[in-house]
């Protein structure tokens, strides 16, 4: 009997699976608090599995479900999965670039040829969007929060450059943020506006750090991966807008949220 293979990326918010059955690659994800049912589903759906795991909860998954599995270091898996998808999706950006992994938090890696190094990390990421978004609104679901951010106007919450200069000519784009959430002290913004402001703040923070990393390491492209931009058009659009503004070319992968799981899958 042919043995099927799977790579599992168990992170802070999601458990992502890539499994190969009859020569075809499949993708699946579940909330991390549903890991028991997710693994049970995988075992029933794809028998005779050879498994490799990665991510912060990889040792838990190995011990509880797959004692014979191999643990792949998270940063290695991320790099290998990114390289695989760049080739699979015909996106040639050369050998030197950044990987910006926006998951629960955000992690930066610099790739120089065959070498990869994690250079930076931030607590700002998808977890911020969900967690702080839930504190700012009465909404708890990721999709609902994303819909709110898409309908809102950040200018009703953020102080913009044009607010400071008013009738005077601004030396920079007047729609840029002068101070995040600064209008909240004197206005009563809607939940939509709060989420638009939050999404924008996350994008600005990530792009600022990406720009600094790109300058230091002399690269011009950043591959954006992770689950935080999936279905979140406002965040994705803001990242693309600000990246282009600072001279860094953003590259989004169609299956970028599965880079870790793909890397684990193909490394063994």
Portion of residues in helices? 40-55%
Output the number of helix runs: 9
Q: Mean pLDDT score, rounded?
A: 92
Q: What proportion of the residues form beta strands (DSSP E)? A: 25-35%
Q: Based on CA inertia axes, which overall geometry fits?
A: globular
Task: Please summarize what this structure is.
By secondary structure, the protein is α/β, with parallel strands linked by helices.
Summarize the SSE layout with pairings.
Elements lengths: L3 E7 L3 E8 L2 E8 L3 H11 L3 E6 L3 H7 L5 E2 L2 H15 L7 E7 L3 E7 L2 E8 L3 H11 L5 H10 L7 E2 H5 L11 E3 L11 H27 L3 E5 L7 H13 L3 E4 L6 H9 L1
Parallel strand pairs: 1-4, 4-5, 6-11, 11-12
Antiparallel strand pairs: 1-2, 2-3, 6-7, 7-8, 9-10
Structure characteristics:
5-stranded mixed sheet; Nucleotidyltransferase, domain 5; 40% helix; 9 helices; 12 strands; alpha/beta; 268 residues
Report on the architecture of this protein.
- The protein has 268 residues and is of the alpha/beta class.
- Among the domains are: 4-75 and 259-267, Nucleotidyltransferase, domain 5, CATH 3.30.420; 126-154 and 188-252, Nucleotidyltransferase, domain 5.
- It has nine helices and twelve strands.
- The chain has helices at residues 35-45, 58-64, 74-88, 126-136, 142-151, 161-165, 191-217, 233-245, 259-267; strands at 4-10, 14-21, 24-31, 49-54, 70-71, 96-102, 106-112, 115-122, 159-160, 177-179, 221-225, 249-252.
- It has a five-stranded mixed β-sheet, with helices on both faces. A five-stranded mixed β-sheet has the order 8-7-6-11-12, with helices on both faces.
- A hairpin with a 2-residue loop joins strand 2 (14-21) and strand 3.
- Helix 4 (126-136) packs antiparallel against helix 7.
- The radius of gyration is 20 Å and the shape is globular.
- The two termini are 19 Å apart.
